[in-house]
Amino acid sequence: MADQYAQSGEAVRPSDVAAMPAIPAIRWDEPPEGPVLVLLDQTRLPAEETELVCTDPPALVQAIRTLAVRGAPLLGIAGAYGVALAAARGFDVDEAADALAGARPTAVNLAYGARRAQAAYRKAVAGGADEQQAAAAVLATARALHKEDAEASARMAVHGLALLDELMPGGRPRVLTHCNTGALVSGGEGTAFAVALAAHREGRLRRLWVDETRPLLQGARLTAYEAARAGMPYTLLTDNAAGSLFAAGEVDAVLIGADRIAADGSVANKVGSYPLAVLARYHHVPFIVVAPVTTVDPDTPDGAAIEVEQRASHEVTEVTVPFVPVTGAEVGGGISVAPLGTQAYNPAFDVTPPELVTAVVTEEGVVSPVTTEGLAELCARSRQV
Ligand code: MRU
């Protein structure tokens, strides 16, 4: 079966890849008109690489809700820069931090980033800083978080690759991934995708199976885009095809990211992750979660306590071309693929219980088996650094 797919990764010609500009997922800029946060608009990918310029916190909140900027670690970075933008532009910082932290409920990193930046502002003001100095302190915090995330990403790749080696000594795994976890969600090269990329660079990735990730197609639009840019051997599949792929013995490991990991090790990630965990267990395939320590939330005791974002029906009932999700409306303005008025069940995430997770890989190391104690020890270690 593998041979029939051998062409897929080579479908992107080197010239195509070189032609793609490398726009960072997020950057702070200070043009003469005042500071702005510039996002690579992920709703337009892969058709267009367009920048979205946010001049105020409400614009950033909207960008977060429409998934122009998305993915747990990047949401944390965006939250922090959003508070920096509020401070630099004279907005009410506490109000902005609340709006940003609550823009999407599941990824714990978003609130973490916004609240950390807010705390930096309050500390500066309490220490006698004027508005300008306080704004500079918040920006420094956002930049620090951005840098920390890039470093965490590199360390996760090292730990993840070592784990793959341990599980499959000398092997060239075929890795299945879901949603998007690369440089588009991170200050660095990402989480799960960074591990696959590290394996690829060492010539040890046999294939990256990319789930399309309905309904917003983060796999097809974004992971395939990143895999193509990196020249990785990848093949796209519909989410429904994963079962037959496992049954055919074509998957050696599942690597996914996380939006929130509860204290007991329950993992919230893009909807469709849980069925993959069940499949992986049935087929004796390791199911590996890669996430920075900031995604572990000791304040959320278990999976039942994780708030799962529910999104609009039209993301399922309509198809938009070019792909631009519309939020906050009854209809999205796309082409209906279901009878008018159809309501859809559209959770953005699902929760995988810890007993189905082989390992959680973080920048601080690997937790396996996944236990409350193991995760608590990891968080404590991280706080000491
Ligand atoms: O709705 P999204 O696109 O923000 O969801 C993103 C995911 O579910 C990712 O898998 C998760 O954030 C991990 S990214 C390191």
TrEMBL record:
InterPro entries registered for this protein in UniProt: IF-2B-related (IPR000649), IF-M1Pi (IPR005251), IF_2B-like_C (IPR042529), Initiation_fac_2B_a/b/d (IPR011559), M1Pi_N (IPR027363), NagB/RpiA_transferase-like (IPR037171)
Q: Which GO terms describe its molecular function?
A: S-methyl-5-thioribose-1-phosphate isomerase activity
At the top level, the lineage of the source is Bacteria
Keyword DNA damage attributed: no
Pathway where it operates: Amino-acid biosynthesis; L-methionine biosynthesis via salvage pathway; L-methionine from S-methyl-5-thio-alpha-D-ribose 1-phosphate: step 1/6
Q: Which family does it belong to?
A: Belongs to the EIF-2B alpha/beta/delta subunits family. MtnA subfamily.
Naturally occurring in which organism (per UniProt)? Streptomyces aurantiacus JA 4570
Task: Please tell me which top-level EC class this enzyme sits in.
Answer: isomerase
Do the record's keywords include Lipid metabolism? no
What role is this protein assigned? Catalyzes the interconversion of methylthioribose-1-phosphate (MTR-1-P) into methylthioribulose-1-phosphate (MTRu-1-P).
Residues at which substrate binds: 70-72, 104, 218, 269-270
| One Pfam family of this chain | IF-2B
Q: Could you identify this protein by its name?
A: Methylthioribose-1-phosphate isomerase
Quote the SUPFAM superfamilies the UniProt record gives.
NagB/RpiA/CoA transferase-like (SSF100950)
Q: Which UniProt keywords apply?
A: Amino-acid biosynthesis, Isomerase, Methionine biosynthesis
